[in-house]
Design goal:
two-stranded antiparallel ribbon; transmembrane helix; 22 helices; transmembrane; mainly alpha; membrane
């Protein structure tokens, strides 16, 4: 029998498989805390700088007074003014580590197995997580975040793949959705944890400690039977399936499990053949363009997802409630995913593309709605809607990618896609931080003024260096600026174009992140339509199976039956 028939015999989602999946799904709470840690421990409180000599950082520290009761790396190491970039840098170092971990551990788990890579990465992530909590300096803290990200990148991918490979293919969408849904719950729980634990070192310790328990629980997990089967370890795969059958209470089926050799698998005794690997993703005719498209889709999902989440720390109001809301808002997305991706008229491809495009349009609308609009329909509610939509797309792309890649290169494929995903994660902390930039030109600000364009052209009078003033509010007049519900434009006869300046002003600048998210979401949704549909199609175990006509097309116009 083949592997799918064996799963039907021993149980596709029996009691023991539910226990294994439960442990791996709950592990997402720990991973969410690690991913979002910098949002709270890097919070920038309100502060006041007294007049004096601010020529260097040491002098600046003497004149800074924090007016908000916040304990973070900013207050401990005075990461202000010229040093403020270090907060975003720490967040980006984490995702840079995740990127490296994806590239290294993904293909490695395809070579030596899922379990050893998973346990090794989880163990060292816990160790480096404690190094974060007890870091004596910013430099040690930043290095520890890089190493935590490195281990997180190796562990998270294998964790997700194991939730798929322990069960029958019919349950992949459900286990994948539960995994991503629990990650969203983890974000909300981290917001609540941060509310009750304010000191950043204590918060980092509390967020990292559950990793110890999860490591002990995961030690007993078996190797993936799908990986063993695809690599030619047929007897070991049979042993794992028989063990699963016994733990499921189906002892009679255990004796009937007899697998035939997987076509195209790496034979155990063939030492000269290392089997498919990383390079096949770009040299194989079917996988090449599929990988390129998926890389961009993953990048866009990550940029919009983490960018909107980390933008919560920029929102006014309770930052802990904002973080929790940005996690809880995802939950309605997952039932929608399960409903749409299993429908013949929607499937994986169309649903993913639609959610991405709608997320981009939501971010576009966010730019056009004033922040001070009504409580129900405002920029924050539209941003939350965008987070919900991109969460749905992110969930689908995880499940979709595992179905598009054969078992022999599944982790390598996920690793490459996640690598590009982490590029978006690296950039994400800097996109919301744009709103903290100072003006290039020192101008009078008015909180009631809101520009509709990202870039503003500045004019000045021909006969002097002063800026033309708005007759209504006295504010420097902009080309096509929106002021007190009246449109103003420059007067060509009185003004002379002297220079064009890209003005990074707070009122204008808050729309910058949403423009980036809008373009990324819409373009990724369009490219996603180039991928083939996988609904109700068999799982490929080896590269040879991709030669089947059902898998040989990049573009597919019909949903598989």
């Amino acid at each position: 029998m083949d592997l799918e028939e064996a799963f039907q015999l021993v149980g596709e989602f029996g009691s023991y498989q539910k226990q294994m999946v439960l442990v791996l799904v709950l592990l997402q709470v720990y991973m969410a805390c690690q991913s979002m840690l910098i949002v709270l421990i890097g919070a920038i409180p309100e502060y006041h700088i007294e007049q004096g000599d601010h020529s260097n950082h040491e002098e600046l520290i003497k004149h800074v007074t924090f007016t908000e009761d916040v304990n973070s790396i900013v207050t401990e190491w005075f990461l202000l003014k010229q040093q403020s970039y270090k907060v975003s840098l720490a967040g980006s170092l984490f995702f840079a580590g995740v990127l490296i971990g994806n590239v290294f551990f993904g293909p490695l788990s395809d070579k030596i197995g899922r379990k050893p890579v998973f346990l090794t990465a989880l163990f060292f992530e816990v160790v480096f997580g404690y190094a974060t909590a007890f870091a004596p300096s910013y430099e040690v803290f930043a290095l520890s975040r890089l190493l935590v990200g490195l281990m997180n990148g190796g562990m998270s991918l294998v964790c997700f793949v194991l939730t798929q490979e322990y069960v029958g293919k019919a349950y992949w969408a459900m286990t994948g959705t539960l995994t991503n849904m629990t990650f969203a719950v983890g974000i909300a729980l981290f917001g609540a944890l941060g509310y009750y634990i304010r000191p950043w070192r204590t918060l980092a310790t509390a967020a990292n400690s559950p990793g110890v328990l999860f490591f002990l629980l995961c030690v007993t997990l078996p190797e993936s039977p799908r990986w063993l089967y695809s690599r030619g370890y047929t007897e070991k795969a049979e042993e794992v399936l028989q063990y699963i059958a016994v733990r499921n209470g189906n002892s009679n089926a255990a004796a009937k499990v007899k697998l035939r050799m997987c076509p195209g698998s790496v034979k155990t005794g063939n030492q000269g053949n290392n089997g498919p690997g990383f390079l096949d993703l770009f040299t194989h005719t079917v996988l090449r363009w599929r990988t390129v498209v998926l890389m961009y889709v993953w990048y866009s999902c990550s940029l919009v997802y983490y960018g909107l989440t980390m933008n919560a720390s920029e929102d006014s109001g309770n930052r802990y409630f904002s973080v929790a809301m940005y996690g809880l808002v995802e939950l309605p997305a997952y039932p929608l995913c399960i409903y749409f991706i299993n429908k013949q008229w929607a499937g994986r491809r169309k649903t993913m593309a639609s959610f991405l495009a709608l997320a981009g349009l939501s971010c576009l609308c966010t730019m056009l709605v004033p922040v001070t609009a009504g409580a129900l329909f405002n920029a924050t509610s539209l941003a939350l809607l965008g987070k919900l939509l991109v969460s749905a797309a992110f969930n689908i792309v995880y499940v979709y990618t595992t179905e598009l890649y054969p078992t022999a290169v599944r982790n390598a494929g996920l690793g490459v896609c996640s690598m590009s995903c982490r590029v978006g994660g690296i950039l994400a902390p800097f996109v919301p931080s744009m709103v903290r930039q100072q003006n290039i030109i020192n101008m009078t600000r008015d909180k009631n003024h809101q520009s509709f364009f990202v870039f503003t052209i500045v004019f000045k009078y021909e006969d002097h260096f002063g800026l033309s003033k708005c007759s209504n509010c006295g504010k420097p007049k902009f080309c096509f600026a929106f002021c007190h519900n009246v449109w103003y434009s420059f007067e060509p006869l009185k003004l002379k174009l002297c220079f064009v300046c890209y003005v990074f002003q707070r009122e204008l600048h808050t729309s910058m992140p949403f423009l980036v998210f809008c373009l990324s979401g819409i373009s990724a949704g369009c490219l996603g339509l180039l991928l083939p549909e996988t609904l109700n199609k068999p799982v490929t175990e080896t590269l040879d199976e991709l030669s089947s006509p059902a898998y040989h097309r990049i573009v597919e116009t019909k949903v598989g039956s």
